């Protein structure tokens, strides 16, 4: 029992889930390039259908469309909290990270398009380097940032949350296909029923209501999945409308499962790609665009526009961060990982070769950003510790 409590505590933390995510991706990449490839690929490509519905997905799509919707449910709950009671609940709080987030989206897009935009087969990958993996970034910050002021973590959290919002919009708008509007309307009705049930649960707390919510949530997910909108959007919709108290309980209950099972499993499946036997000059422009845009574009965009935001911040806004802290936040922002992997799968769903190279670009770019973040965050944390020691 003590061991189980320790494990759950670790899964609710920041460092252990980040390490677990990295190990899962590394294992997926390793096994994809060993003789184990064909056996595992056969399992991942096996189809599982739900009788009486339009759902007939491969195992890998059940992971990316099904299990990952639970992750987005938890993300949406956190988004709603931060927008109403957290770090983004006022314009004065939100304006600085919003401007920095805009830089962290626009500059990577520009870098990607400069490298891969002239090729029609790779131009559609421009959304991929715009994402920041909030769990990974905060995990690295926790590992290397002892001594950093809390304002850096708050800024990074707000920045990553805004990135998540942008990523969700990209998934919902850019990657919809042959939308079945009637099914989508029925999904919205199911979400409305879910909303009403969550209010009842908030007032009465009866377990039957919780069971009904779970059933309605699954129906909403299924309707979104067959409507032509990516199924993870169902998780976002449900998380945003859930009543605050039940939402907090759901997030607390699901957090260990999301961090310990769902995200590592998705990382394994997404990273299960064969490394192409090509020279660097033969690699797709999509690979280079992503691998460069994540560590370079994110640092430039976040630090430069973050600096501008600090200069024009409104009255009542949080204190300005030093430019060196903005650079450290920019390196953390380059760890795209989870959402970038999903965007890579969506952007190049019709071209497996480019998709696999794009995924490798996400892994390489995120790894380079992780190393840079470790160095920059450690340097800044060391400076703050020395300053505190000198003044004490």
TrEMBL record:
<keyword id="KW-0915">Sodium</keyword>
<keyword id="KW-0739">Sodium transport</keyword>
<dbReference type="Pfam" id="PF06965">
    <property type="entry name" value="Na_H_antiport_1"/>
</dbReference>
<dbReference type="InterPro" id="IPR004670">
    <property type="entry name" value="NhaA"/>
</dbReference>
<keyword id="KW-0812">Transmembrane</keyword>
<comment type="similarity">
    <text>Belongs to the NhaA Na(+)/H(+) (TC 2.A.33) antiporter family.</text>
</comment>
<feature type="transmembrane region" description="Helical">
    <location>
        <begin position="285"/>
        <end position="308"/>
    </location>
</feature>
<dbReference type="InterPro" id="IPR023171">
    <property type="entry name" value="Na/H_antiporter_dom_sf"/>
</dbReference>
<keyword id="KW-0472">Membrane</keyword>
<feature type="transmembrane region" description="Helical">
    <location>
        <begin position="181"/>
        <end position="198"/>
    </location>
</feature>
<keyword id="KW-0813">Transport</keyword>
<dbReference type="GO" id="GO:0006885">
    <property type="term" value="P:regulation of pH"/>
</dbReference>
<feature type="transmembrane region" description="Helical">
    <location>
        <begin position="229"/>
        <end position="248"/>
    </location>
</feature>
<feature type="transmembrane region" description="Helical">
    <location>
        <begin position="320"/>
        <end position="346"/>
    </location>
</feature>
<keyword id="KW-1133">Transmembrane helix</keyword>
<feature type="transmembrane region" description="Helical">
    <location>
        <begin position="123"/>
        <end position="142"/>
    </location>
</feature>
<feature type="transmembrane region" description="Helical">
    <location>
        <begin position="205"/>
        <end position="223"/>
    </location>
</feature>
<dbReference type="GO" id="GO:0005886">
    <property type="term" value="C:plasma membrane"/>
</dbReference>
<dbReference type="GO" id="GO:0015385">
    <property type="term" value="F:sodium:proton antiporter activity"/>
</dbReference>
<protein>
    <recommendedName>
        <fullName>Na(+)/H(+) antiporter NhaA</fullName>
    </recommendedName>
</protein>
<keyword id="KW-0406">Ion transport</keyword>
<feature type="transmembrane region" description="Helical">
    <location>
        <begin position="59"/>
        <end position="77"/>
    </location>
</feature>
<comment type="function">
    <text>Na(+)/H(+) antiporter that extrudes sodium in exchange for external protons.</text>
</comment>
<feature type="transmembrane region" description="Helical">
    <location>
        <begin position="98"/>
        <end position="117"/>
    </location>
</feature>
<keyword id="KW-1003">Cell membrane</keyword>
<feature type="transmembrane region" description="Helical">
    <location>
        <begin position="154"/>
        <end position="175"/>
    </location>
</feature>
<feature type="transmembrane region" description="Helical">
    <location>
        <begin position="358"/>
        <end position="379"/>
    </location>
</feature>
<keyword id="KW-0050">Antiport</keyword>
<feature type="transmembrane region" description="Helical">
    <location>
        <begin position="260"/>
        <end position="279"/>
    </location>
</feature>
């Amino acid at each position: 029992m003590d061991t189980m409590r320790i494990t759950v505590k670790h899964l609710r933390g920041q460092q252990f889930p980040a390490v677990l995510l990295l190990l899962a991706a590394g294992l997926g990449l390793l096994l994809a390039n060993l003789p184990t490839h064909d056996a595992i690929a056969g399992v991942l490509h096996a189809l599982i259908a739900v009788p009486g519905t339009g759902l007939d997905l491969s195992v890998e799509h059940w992971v990316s469309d099904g299990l990952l919707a639970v992750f987005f449910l938890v993300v949406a709950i956190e988004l709603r909290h931060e927008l109403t009671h957290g770090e983004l609940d006022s314009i004065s709080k939100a304006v600085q990270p919003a401007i920095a987030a805009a830089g962290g989206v626009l500059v990577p897009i520009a870098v990607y398009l400069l490298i891969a935009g002239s090729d029609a087969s790779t131009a559609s990958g421009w959304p991929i380097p715009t994402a920041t993996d909030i769990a990974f970034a905060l995990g690295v910050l926790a590992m290397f940032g002892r001594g950093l002021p809390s304002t850096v973590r708050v800024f990074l959290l707000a920045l990553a949350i805004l990135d998540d919002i942008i990523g969700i919009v990209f998934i919902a708008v850019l990657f919809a296909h042959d939308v079945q509007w009637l099914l989508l309307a029925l999904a919205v009705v199911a979400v409305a029923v879910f909303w009403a049930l969550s209010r009842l649960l908030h007032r009465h707390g009866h377990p039957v209501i919780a069971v009904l919510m779970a059933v309605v949530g699954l129906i909403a997910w299924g309707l979104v999945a067959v409507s032509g909108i990516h199924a993870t959007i169902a998780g976002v919709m449900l998380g945003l409308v859930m009543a605050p108290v039940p939402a907090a309980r759901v997030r607390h209950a699901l957090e260990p499962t999301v961090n310990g099972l769902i995200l590592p499993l998705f990382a394994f499946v997404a990273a299960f790609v064969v490394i192409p036997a090509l020279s660097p000059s033969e690699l797709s422009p999509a690979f280079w665009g992503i691998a460069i845009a994540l560590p370079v574009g994110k640092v430039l965009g976040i630090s430069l526009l973050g600096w501008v935001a600090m200069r024009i911040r409104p009255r009542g806004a949080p204190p300005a961060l030093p430019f060196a802290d903005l650079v450290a936040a920019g390196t953390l922002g380059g760890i795209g990982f989870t959402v970038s992997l999903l965007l890579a799968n969506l952007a190049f769903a019709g071209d497996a070769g480019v998709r696999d190279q794009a995924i490798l670009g996400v892994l390489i770019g995120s790894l380079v950003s992780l190393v840079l973040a470790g160095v920059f965050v450690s340097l800044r944390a060391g400076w703050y510790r020395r300053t505190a020691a000198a003044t004490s």
